[in-house]
Each structure stands twice: as structure tokens, then as C-alpha cells.
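At this stage, I put together a protein sequence along with its fold in C-alpha cell form, as given directly below:
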Amino acid sequence: MNKVGIIGAGISGLFVANLFKRNPNYQISVFEKNNSINLEEGYGIQLSVNSVRLLNQIGFNKFKDNKKFNPNKINFYSIKSSNKICDLDISDFNSQDCKYTTLKRSDLVNFLKMDLGDLIKTNHNISKIDQENQKIKLIFENNEVYECDYLIISDGVFSKSKSLISNNQNQPRFNKTLAIRGTLPNTEKIDCKSISLFLGSNFHQVIYPVNPSGDLNFIAILKYNLSINEQKNHLLFNDNNFIKKILDDIPLEMREFINEIKQLKIFPVFVSNNFFKLKNDNIHFIGDALFAFPPSFAQGASQSIEGAYELFKSIENKTENSYLKNRGSKIRMVNNRSKFNQFAFHLSNPLTTFLRDIFLKRLVKNKKFLESYLGKIYR
């Protein structure tokens, strides 16, 4: 029996653990540095059909209907004019039991950890990773030692495990944007059954339902530069004066939403520069530890799930040496489209904004374009 060690109990780590748990040829342990799994109550995520299809393999299709929502379209709005630009029908990519889904991150994490029980080891902060012959030795700060045949690293964009292996050579970079997150009460100001995307100058925001009750998730991305010291100063993002300064930079037209936000959180967005490649076929990265995208394509969670599944199948089929090559092409596609979306969403010149809106109205009705731009990701 092969032993699999998984560092990080986020979405990708928990999902891949569920896959290995269903194969009797593997024994797994999931190591989480904190004393409990971070649920971040309230914050939402979007799951396109490519990831929902894979989650259904571990029973997501039977997950409580009152804990998730299936929006059928994305409404695009101009912040400047407050007018609706167009809408995109995302239900075209749905099937009977596989639909575009939004839900609270905490509800997805609770679903993913439901069957893992004591396979999840909390308070296990990695301090050293050694390789002896074909075995990998994990040494934790609590002095516990775990030996495994495969190591899967899924401890996020600031992966400590990756830093240990790479000698801090593969660090994420600041995306020159801030994320503003929170929750909103049900409101008549927007269509609460759809995803609402507001486009503005160096700014965009997304509001969407996370359950049939009408609870709403709010996420905004603001172009903003920080010094290196500011990027590292975690206390800064809890400072009331700094928070006020950031909120004052948000377009006046959006203040009506900002004033109603609960559980407000502001943080800098970091993304990956490239892949960190190991010659060792027994150590692999998934989720943001592998590659973190700009948050402008709503594919972070879905790509984490898809990548975790591909890694599981490659280990199961003894083709793990081709995992990164196959995953890399998809990651590059999603990353390029995420960067382009951010560029297009944040246009500020009146002429280019006018032309963008004209093209957007045409493209959302162009089936051939949608199949190429979205279908290659979603299917």
C-alpha cells in the first residue's frame, strides 16, 4: 500500500484526499498547520461545470440544495452609466446534474472534509522535507515525523512547503490589485438570481447569490500599488484609516453596495510567475501552491479541483511524470484569459470602454466564440 501525505487542508487538498480515500491501494494523511480548518464563513466561490462534474464523483450532486445555487446568466453593467451592457447565458454549458454552481466556501469545505474524519491532522506545521531513497520524510514543528511514498503540496499561494523545497526561489508576485470581500443582504438593486459584474475604471466588482435564501457574496478588485513593506505588513489591512482610504477610492456609484457590506476584508492579490518544476515524480503541487491566477475569470477553485483530479489519475495510472506537462497547457490558457479579463474589465479611456461594450454585446451572443473562450475551460 502506498502512503500519500497531503500538506494543506484547503479545497484542492481535501478534494484529492477524497479521491485517494476511495482507492484501497492508498493510505492518506492530510496535514493542516492551523488548529482547525479555515472556513471563512460567508465568503462565496463559483464552480463552473468542469469542476462540478468532478465533485459529483464524490457525491456533490447529493449535497443539500439549500446550500448551493445555480445562476443561469452573468449580467454586465457599466459603473459609469449604471446601465446594463448585456448578459451572458452560462446555462448553455450545463447538463441535467452538472450545472454552474455558486455557494459559500465554508459549505464546500465542510462537504469535502465530511468523510475524512481523523485522516486530517491539525496543528501540523511543516518544518522540513527530506527524501531518503524512494521515501519522503516530513518533519513537523511538533516533532512528529511522517514517511510517505507520495507528497502532495496544497498549502496555498504562500506555500511554506514549496519554499522549503525551492530554498525560497519561487515566490508569488503582487498583482498590483487589492481584493475587497464581504457579504451582502438580499437586495432589489440587482438581479439576485444571477451573477452581476460591474465594470469600471481600474476597478470591477462581482455580486452573486450563494444559496436559494438570497445570501450574496461581494468581491471587488481595485488596481492599487503597494510598496514591498506594505505588501508584507499584514496589520495594515486591518487598520481603519487604511480601510477608509481604500473604500474612498471605490467609484461613487458603487458606494451603495459598499455601505451594506458585512464581514468586510481587504487583502493584496498575489499571483504566480511560473511553475516550480521538480525532477522528483513523487512530489507534486496542486491548487494555488501550483499556480495562483488573477481573480478575473472565477476559475481559482475550479482549476484547483480539476488539477487535483488530474494528479490523482496520473498517480493511479503511474503516469505522474506527465502530470505537469498536461496541466501546464490548461493553466497557461486560464492565466492568459484571466489577465485579459482584468485588462478589459478595468479600461478607463472613454473610447476604448465604448468599443469594449460594443464588442461585448456581440460576443456574448456568438456561440462559436463562447465555445472557444469558455467551452475549452468549462468542458
Observations:
- The chain has one domain: 2-172+272-378.
